[in-house]
TrEMBL record:
<dbReference type="InterPro" id="IPR013783">
    <property type="entry name" value="Ig-like_fold"/>
</dbReference>
<dbReference type="Pfam" id="PF01520">
    <property type="entry name" value="Amidase_3"/>
</dbReference>
<keyword id="KW-0378">Hydrolase</keyword>
<dbReference type="GO" id="GO:0008745">
    <property type="term" value="F:N-acetylmuramoyl-L-alanine amidase activity"/>
</dbReference>
<feature type="domain" description="MurNAc-LAA">
    <location>
        <begin position="823"/>
        <end position="930"/>
    </location>
</feature>
<protein>
    <submittedName>
        <fullName>N-acetylmuramoyl-L-alanine amidase</fullName>
    </submittedName>
</protein>
<dbReference type="InterPro" id="IPR050695">
    <property type="entry name" value="N-acetylmuramoyl_amidase_3"/>
</dbReference>
<feature type="signal peptide">
    <location>
        <begin position="1"/>
        <end position="25"/>
    </location>
</feature>
<dbReference type="GO" id="GO:0009253">
    <property type="term" value="P:peptidoglycan catabolic process"/>
</dbReference>
<dbReference type="InterPro" id="IPR002508">
    <property type="entry name" value="MurNAc-LAA_cat"/>
</dbReference>
<keyword id="KW-0732">Signal</keyword>
<dbReference type="GO" id="GO:0030288">
    <property type="term" value="C:outer membrane-bounded periplasmic space"/>
</dbReference>
Length: 937
């Protein structure tokens, strides 16, 4: 009804407007929906075809253009209906610009290609009051009438699917003043100039629909009707040309009385244009048109692509605009203003556009700008021989580094390492219109640091551990007191290795100091030398003194010594014969209340990883931190005894308790059938048949206890070796061991062992996703953060384990969680197994999975996990490795840290973003946990 009323009224509107009548806006109506997204090309006379070239040549040019449009998968073309020389169809009233009916031929050829056929009529060219055809700057009643008549004639003869009216603006000139005086002097000059425009649009619409009712009628507009500074109803723009001011266009009147189906906005501004921003312009027109039942489409000015106007240099500008059109309510699609620009394929833009239309590209990729997240600083000085760049980009457009294209994964993520020459190095990344420049100055420093440093006093014949951080591939030697050794390059492990991609790696070795004498000896400074790529540099470490002969631990009645008591809940122990700060997996903790004699002065060792460590050597043959014990003063030696032994069990643990009389003397722990390396790692735990505890200065005055029913231990035996009691806990199955905790309950020394759960049913598993809160771990351009992936994998593992009957606790990493808190939370949960989940970082070529263990009975779990996760990810199994991470360096249960893959390897990162791979990894972790437990039954 609305359209019918408009058409009845249209014939009267020209007279009404020119007579000074008032037009009011009508109520909102529902926008017309497009059957499918418009993907059109606007053909340009003189560029895509030449109307003056003759019929044969012109038709061939049209055919070629239409074939190209169809080849691009477009669904419509817009063909001009007239030029400055005349119309392009067989008109009986206006002169023709060609020698044949071009529009009728174009209509047939267009539809033959399966394309919709639209025409663009430029009202700025037409017949004036003298009957002459050409460009015109003014409108009049006769111009309106003749234009409407020829539009009706063209629509009837050529049967287009739609007609777009352009060039309908008016101007105030001497000629228009003369026309005003003869046609509309009663309404005021400005009103008359403006209403000539409205009359033209209304009558043109009526003529088109009168000739063919289902023909779409649209207006082609400039970007801005009015800036808000001109009219509060205008757009938030700052355009120089305003249709309302410079073209005298009253859109309110036009929408009220003309039957407008669609507005095609010629969007000359880019998405970053500050004066007439594409998004701002299109949204304003869409909202305005929708209020009057019309749709909107975007004229994409793709001929500007690659130019210097703001935003147009980037080859993805057109793609971003198309994405925006799809996000605008009421927008039916787009028309490209230049076929030749599509053919030019600036920066691969057309290729990307067609792939997007074919649903072969994700919008998120197109919206990705170049980011280089690592290194964070753009200008800096470094001692590293290489720099690792990590970042992300749009995978659909090239990325170059110093002019050479970089390889990336399917998401556009890249990781590349570049050698640094001594002095200034410049690296320029270029992608779309963005450049990122790094200026990195390299200083050649082979030796980064030497540990120990400062001053230290050691016992005679002690092996002093020396660690030098130097360039990987160097040759490093250390000397002390005339003794030189070659240091061995090792892999960086432990918490300092987490996310570390430095080219500096540890070189380690030991030098044995001279035997002690009656007086202190000054052995001198540790000196090191490093050679790399023909360059040799040296550095100094700690000044080393050998203490005078120490007092021996008393071992007979009447002898005295300096007694200390363990005050820490569990005092970590270290090898006595080596001095460093490194935790050692072959040394087991002593519980609070344990006493022993110290047989050394306070020993100090400083390194950059752990800081300053102060230690005592105990008579039991281990070294402890000075802060974990307190002095009891001088005390005579005395023998202690075991006066009783009992055993009991509950659902998770089996306990063996020994009543002690006298002092709670220290003890050492070892596993039968297990060989240790000097660092504390084991070759295998599969052959372990039992755990042996040697209680110093203790006499067994009781027999072995009868074991409570359990599935871990097969027996307990006691024997005497000199002053010491040896307790041996035999395992039911070799290698089947899940940790222990020793503690004092009054005068009773209690050993609490984890029993073996019956598979996952009844098992307690603690999962610790690494990082969290402000600690994101490894991050690639802020898009891929390790903490998020760790938490995701952990949640999936937890779901699987719970579905199989396990009780699972997961560290909540929504906020920051310290390493100490993670350890205490896990110990409070008392799990059978602890698994910390991480993802690795390194050079771009580094790939694979690896799992770190510390205590010996964690190794089998580490081996099972590394192989399983590598298989799930389809990558290299880097194996199970010994390493002292804070979350794994406790003895109560097997604890491992899994590095599931390298985020800095683009291929592995791509896999790690896939739900299918994440599910496979989670399943493999759950399977490895289950297999580890069931293998112990």
């Amino acid at each position: 009804m609305q359209r019918t009323l408009r058409r009845i009224a249209a014939g009267l509107i020209c007279t009404l407007l020119l007579a000074g009548g008032t037009v009011f806006a009508e109520e909102d109506s529902t926008p017309k929906a497009s059957a499918s997204e418009m993907k059109a090309v606007i053909l340009q006379a003189g560029q895509d075809f030449d109307p003056a070239a003759g019929e044969g040549e012109c038709k061939a040019q049209l055919d070629a253009a239409l074939s190209k449009v169809a080849e691009y998968g477009m669904n419509a073309v817009l063909v001009p209906a007239n030029t400055a020389s005349g119309v392009l169809f067989a008109s009986e009233t206006w002169p023709m610009a060609c020698d044949f009916d071009l529009l009728s031929y174009a209509a047939e050829a267009t539809r033959g290609q399966g394309l919709a056929f639209y025409v663009v009529f430029d009202a700025s060219c037409g017949v004036d009051e003298q009957g002459q055809y050409g460009a015109r700057t003014n409108l009049s009643a006769s111009a309106v009438q003749s234009t409407a008549a020829v539009l009706g004639e063209m629509t009837g003869k050529c049967q287009p699917d739609g007609v777009y009216l352009a060039g309908y603006y008016n101007q105030k000139t001497a000629e228009s003043m003369s026309l005003y005086r003869s046609e509309g002097a009663s309404m005021g000059y400005d009103n008359w100039v403006r209403e000539c425009v409205s009359s033209l649009v209304v009558n043109a619409s009526a003529a088109v629909h009168g000739a063919k009712a289902d023909t779409l009628f649209g207006l082609i507009t400039d970007p801005v009707w009015a800036n808000q500074s001109t009219d509060p109803a205008g757009s938030a723009t700052q355009a120089d040309f305003e249709m309302a001011v410079d073209g005298f266009v009253d859109m309110n009147a036009i929408f009220a009385w003309a039957d407008i189906d669609q507005v095609m906005v010629r969007c000359t501004g880019s998405l970053t244009d500050e004066t007439q921003n594409f998004k701002t312009v299109l949204n304003w027109w869409a909202q305005t048109a929708s209020q009057h039942g019309a749709g909107v489409s975007a004229w994409i000015c793709n001929e500007r692509l690659g130019g210097d106007e703001p935003g147009w240099k980037a080859p993805d500008q057109v793609m971003r605009q198309i994405i925006e059109t799809r996000a605008v309510d009421g927008c039916v699609g787009a028309a490209y203003g230049s076929l030749s620009a599509l053919e030019g394929n600036v920066g691969g833009s057309t290729d990307v556009l067609l792939r997007y239309y074919a649903d072969q590209i994700e919008e998120q990729d197109i919206l990705t700008d170049l980011t280089v997240s690592t290194p964070e600083k753009r200008t800096y000085t470094t001692r590293e021989p290489q720099v690792n760049f990590y970042g992300a980009s749009d995978p659909n457009f090239p990325l170059t580094l110093n002019g050479k294209e970089l390889e990336r994964n399917s998401e556009g993520v890249f990781s590349v390492e570049m050698d640094l020459e001594p002095g200034l190095n410049t690296f320029t990344f270029e992608h779309k219109e963005k450049s990122v420049v790094y200026k990195i100055t390299r200083e050649v420093v082979i030796i980064q640091e030497v540990s120990p440093s400062g001053s230290m006093t050691v016992e005679g014949s002690t092996q002093v551990g020396i660690t030098v951080m130097a360039y990987s591939g160097s040759t490093v030697t250390a000397s002390l007191g005339g003794v030189s050794v070659n240091l061995t390059e090792q892999e960086l492990t432990g918490d300092s290795a987490d996310g570390n991609t430095s080219s500096y790696v540890p070189f380690k070795g030991t030098i044995t100091v001279p035997a002690a004498t009656e007086s202190q000896q000054d052995v001198g400074n540790i000196t090191v030398s490093g050679s790399w790529s023909g360059i040799t540099q040296s550095a100094s470490g700690a000044r080393v003194y050998v203490a005078a002969l120490p007092q021996q631990a008393p071992n007979v009645e009447g002898q005295k010594g300096h007694l200390v008591e363990v005050t820490a809940s569990q005092a970590r122990t270290y090898p006595a014969g080596v001095l460093n700060n490194d935790p050692n997996g072959s040394c087991f903790p002593l519980p609070k209340g344990t006493v022993d004699y110290i047989v050394s002065d306070k020993l100090t060792y400083y390194d950059d990883t752990y800081g300053s460590g102060e230690y005592y050597i105990l008579g039991s043959g281990v070294r402890v931190s000075a802060s974990s014990v307190s002095s009891l003063g001088e005390a005579e030696w005395q023998m202690s005894s075991l006066s009783g032994a009992t055993s009991w069990a509950d659902g998770q643990y089996v306990y063996v308790s020994f009543a002690r009389s006298g002092r709670k003397t220290a003890y050492t722990v070892s596993f039968d059938g297990v060989g240790y390396s000097s660092s504390g790692g084991v070759s295998s735990f599969a052959g372990a048949t039992g755990m042996t505890v040697t209680l110093k200065d203790t006499r067994a005055d009781t027999g072995a206890p009868g074991l409570a029913s359990n599935n871990l231990l097969s027996g307990v035996s006691l024997s005497q070796q000199g002053n010491d009691t040896v307790i041996r806990f035999s395992l039911r199955k070799a290698g089947a061991f899940l940790g222990y905790r020793a503690y004092y309950d009054g005068d009773n020394l209690v050993f609490r062992f984890n029993q073996i759960p019956s598979g996952l049913s009844g098992a307690k598993i603690y999962l610790d996703p690494g990082h969290g809160g402000y600690d994101g771990g490894t991050s690639i351009s802020g898009m891929y953060t390790e903490k998020t992936l760790n938490a995701d994998i952990a949640a999936r593992v937890a779901d699987i384990l719970r579905s199989r009957g396990a009780t699972v606790q997961v560290t909540d990493t929504s906020g920051y969680v310290s390493l100490d808190s993670r350890v205490s939370q896990s110990q409070s949960f008392s799990p059978h197994l602890f698994v910390s989940i991480h993802h690795n970082a390194g050079v771009s070529s580094a790939k694979g999975t690896e799992v770190y263990y510390f205590n010996p009975y964690s190794r089998q779990l580490a081996a099972n996990l590394s192989g399983a996760v590598a298989g799930a990810l389809g990558t290299t199994n880097r194996g199970d490795k010994y390493g002292a991470y804070r979350v794994t360096t406790h003895m109560e249960f097997p604890a491992v840290l899994v590095e599931c893959g390298f985020l800095t390897n683009p291929d592995e990162l791509s896999k790690l973003q896939s739900d299918s791979y994440k599910n496979a990894i989670a399943t493999s972790i759950a399977d490895a946990i289950q297999n580890t437990l069931t293998s112990m039954l």
